[in-house]
Amino acid sequence: MAGAKVTVGNVEIVSLLDTPMEFPWAAFFPNNRQQDFDPYKDRYPGSYAGDGKFRTYAHCYALRSDGKTVLVDTGIGPGMGGRLLEEMNSKGVPPDSVDIVIFTHLHPDHVGWNRTADNAPTFSNARYWIPQGDWDFFTKPEVVSQNPHIGAAVLPLKEDGLIDLFSGEKAITPELTTYPTPGHTPGHTSIMVSSAGERAIITGDLAHHPAQVDHTEWRPGVDSDPAQAVETRSKVFDQLEADGLLTVFCHFPDPGFGKLVRLEGKRVWQAL
Ligand SMILES: [Zn+2]
Fold first, then answer.
1. d(CA 205, ligand 1 centre) in Å
2. Where in the chain are the domains?
3. Ligand 1 center to residue 25 CA distance, Å?
4. Which residues surround ligand 1, an ion (CB under 5 A)?
């Protein structure tokens, strides 16, 4: 297994595991039978739990690029057993060293550590980059009322004047660029890393279980636009396989670094 850090050209990517999580198959993948996933169990044992549940992970990633520290997502947070801050301190990325927090999207397991218990910004020196499409969707009053994490963890950043909205392909640093991958949420965004002739991508929630790299049509019930999510996943994974890019998945077994490769006619996730 790869260590917690990889380098891509001059960029360092540090994997930060907030917590493993378990969900019932039937609730998370309502259009599949649990047995659909059985053939992949030997290849991906870290993505299976017992008792009718599968195991997934809430990862965040710190990127060091061009003198800046960029944190991708903030995990599920302290109330759900997250340990992101310990991870950051033990892996040499103290929270106050973060210059930019960028969200792949605004689901609760990606914004959990935004605020301290005193309702201050956890990452005290950071600006917070939010995809415009997700901001527009998740701040609708009827959506806020159904998603208490928005009021708790996202709207206070607005009151503090810390939010920068972005859309399309936007440079975060000269080596890091946002890459729209909509469908899971309206503004769902991946992060492209390109440095000294090497490339990688952090894919957010393009997949929650590694079997989805083969079956891109398998989708979780939480996708906001299921057809668009399947189309995006299929198109992006075809490209990543063709290009052989280092691909980082927030929800795959720790540390989440790997490649999409073809073995015996199936596309598989090959962890580093
Ligand atoms: Zn999500």
1. 5
2. 5-271
3. 16
4. 107, 205
- 105 CA from centroid of ligand 1 (Å): 7
CA 229 to centroid of ligand 1, rounded, Å: 11
| C-alpha–C-alpha distance, residues 157 and 230, integer Å | 32
Q: Which residues contact 103 (CB under 8 A, 6 or more apart)?
A: 72, 73, 74, 110, 111, 128, 129, 130, 131, 134, 189
pTM: 0.97
Residue 50 is predicted with a pLDDT of 87
Ligand 1 centre to CA of 160 (Å) is 25
Pairing relationship of beta strands 163-166 and 171-173 according to DSSP bridges? unpaired
Tens of pLDDT, residue by residue over 197-235, are: 999 999 999 999 999 999 999 999 999 999 999 999 999
What CATH code would you report for 5-271? 3.60.15.10
